[in-house]
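#help-structures

NK: newbie question. if I give both the sequence and a SMILES, will the prediction place the ligand too? trying with pyridoxal-5'-phosphate
OV: yes, paste both and it writes out the complex. here, I ran yours:
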Amino acid sequence: MSKETKYLLSESDIPKAWYNINADMPIDPGETAWNAVLDPATQKPLTPDALSAIFPKRFVELTASTDRWVEIPEPVIDVYKLWRPTPLIRARRLEKALDTPAHIYYKYEGVSPVGSHKPNTAVPEAFYAKDEGATGMITLTGAGQWGSALAMACRFFDLECHVYMVRVSYYQKPYRRILMESFGATVLPSPSDTTEYGRKLLAEDPDHPGSLGIAASEIVEAAATLAGKLKFGAGALLGPVLMHQTVIGLEALQQFELAGEYPDVVIACNGAGSNFGGFAFPFLHQNFTAGKNTRAIAVEPMACPSLTKGKYTFDCADAANTWPLMKMHTLGHSFVPAGIHAGGLRYHGMAPHVSALYDHGDIEAVAVHQRPTFDAAIQFAGEEGILPAPESAHAVKVAIDEALRCKEAGEAKVIAFNLSGHGHYDLGAYDAYLKNELEDYEYPDEAVQEALSQVPEVALG
Ligand SMILES: Cc1ncc(COP(=O)(O)O)c(C=O)c1O
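OV: that's the protein plus ligand as structure tokens.
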């Protein structure tokens, strides 16, 4: 076993292909329809042509691809070289502070120019859009991590970028808006007064906090009125996005070889699946094909517990029932989660791949409260020096819990988590925490039951 603290790779070690878990999903699509994408009006599968009106064609092709390895285009690798490979770091100081026999490692995606894992998919999506003649992209963002990644990628490929930012985050995190605007993006708070749906919601509640589902509905309406050929930039949820993110886990596998260890458990926070998928799927590939037995834990907020408390059923990806229906763990598309600071985890649904794997028992999920999550983030920062993004702090919390369990049991397990981003634009959240102003929100049962009652009934066949 190596005595190093940081495991670094060179540019030539950046993976040449993404891992496509479609090739290895242990769940029969015929029986479960886990991969169906249905038109909400007819409940029939959407054709590739219909999907290509929204997404780049290459993105649509990849949705259905079952090739295990998908070559990364050279122009994408060239941009990845700005920050990839990212380091794998052994948290030796944290281990010591916890007095645990466990070995804790974290992969640090906060070294990307905008501070999170999100550019791993923003760059290929913008590349496909440009390659196919689009003039710009439109998207929604929670805390602004995804929006700033897409704004940067659009700037690199000379595309316009329109971002609808969830209203509560727009005001909580003005610096992310400024970052997006610095890359030339247009940013609006959602609900906004630029769409009929947004105006209706604002009339009902002028302080409406918004949600990712609502922003998704608004951009459909907005895209129709904006001039130019716009493609939708997907920050999570869909198969190709999860696949683009697998550069994280693929690099980590190489780095564990350098470390001379292999993780017993991999942990990642989970908003709509891409961070978790990107880190965990390459390890699941080893489980499925190479006899490994790594546990994979997805961590979500107690205020928005789609895997642990949602229903596994068809639901729409947006609040107004205009986006396709997919099979997922959902809290109901009209569910508006409390305005917690981990804005990127406030989504009613979950990626179909992650949902299917959870339902099938291949992965685990845990929900944690906001305050103990910030306790863990502060402890981590005090030992390792990095202030995590509030989303990433969810993984830190569960990694620390696992390490403390190892201490009790006297087990020297290898724990790895993805530190998906830094929290340098989230200092308002830390300020609230330090002033003891953060509240824990348990998801309100009645609200979820109400939202679940509006989930569409889908009869397949
Ligand atoms: C830093 C960070 N980590 C994790 C997530 C969750 O990502 P995903 O929706 O892909 O699960 C987000 C979402 O915005 C984020 O900003």
